[in-house]
Amino acid sequence: MKNNKNRIISNLKQNGFSLLELMIAVAIIGIITSIAYPSYMKQVQKSKRTPAKVELMRIAQIQESFYVQNLSYAQTLNNDTAVGGLGFADSTVTTEGGDYSVSLSATTADGSACSGTSVTPCVIYILTAEPISTEPQAHDGLCTGFQLTNTGAKAAKNTAHSTYGTASVRDACW
Fold it and tell me: How many domains does the chain have?
């Protein structure tokens, strides 16, 4: 009987985890999570930059079609195409996912105002995509904006470089 009692007690001691073992497992999971989460968030931010670049390229293609038909680039994103606009509903276009706002500026060769018609044609345009301030992409310090010009030149800026044109930033973002 005594031998049977010891066997029952030893079986009871073998069941389950101790509090120390559980705390070690939780600590290990916490360490792994703290290493993996920032990397995951960087990848999410990087993937959300793609719609901005896609939208810039899409509008640039529409601009080229407009130029072929009118011998001028469009002056604005909104308005009817007959008065120098691309026909979008607003003067800015929001990217798919709603993270970036795309705007257009167009000028004549000497940098003065243009009409988007053959009378005073727009021969230069710059498309700009910047994060909407209320969206998570506004906290993306590596790429805070993208630009695309009529010549196909790409530019980007970040928190360290507040102007467009730095080659290292362009290469990292585009």
Answer: 1
SS (H, E, C) 71-85: CCECCEEECCHHHCE
Domain containing 148 equals: 45-173
Average pLDDT of the residues in 90-98: 93
Confidence of residue 115 (pLDDT cuts 50, 70, 90): confident
Q: Is 140 in contact with 159 (CB distance < 8 Å)?
A: no
Query: What is d(CA 70, CA 60) in angstroms, rounded to the nearest whole number?
Result: 15
0.70 exceeded by pTM: yes
Whether residue 55 lies inside any domain: the answer is yes
